[in-house]
Design brief:
The chain has a 3-stranded antiparallel β-sheet with strand order 2-3-4, with no helix packed on it. The chain has a two-stranded antiparallel sheet with strand order 1-5. By secondary structure, the chain is α+β, with helices and mostly antiparallel strands. A hairpin with a 4-residue loop joins strand 2 and strand 3 (about 15). The protein has a single domain, classed as Orthogonal Bundle (Arc Repressor Mutant, subunit A). The relative contact order is 0.22. It is globular. It has helices at about 30-40, 45-55, 60-75, and strands at about 1-5, 10, 15, 20-25, 80.
């Protein structure tokens, strides 16, 4: 899964899709997930990165990642939803 190349993402968590005109905001965890996806990290690497950076358990991150990536897919912000 990759973030669409035309998506604008600010350091503060503001996300803009110029194709649709939609804008969104996310928290620090969401920004980390997006950063890792932009770096073409695998699902396992994203989970590991979030677990280590935010000191949360893997099961919680796995569920939250699934929910978050589904939302990204629904808003046409990613290519290749897993």
């Amino acid at each position: 899964m990759q973030i669409n190349k035309n998506i604008a993402i600010s350091d503060s968590g503001f996300i803009f899709n110029p194709s649709t005109g939609d804008s969104f905001s996310t928290n620090q965890v969401g920004m980390e997930i997006i950063r890792l996806l932009k770096d073409n990290k695998s699902k396992e690497e994203v989970i590991s990165g979030v677990v280590s950076k935010f000191n949360v358990d893997e099961a919680t991150v796995e569920k939250d990642l699934s929910d978050f990536t589904l939302m990204l897919n629904n808003f046409q912000l990613v290519i290749g939803h897993e």
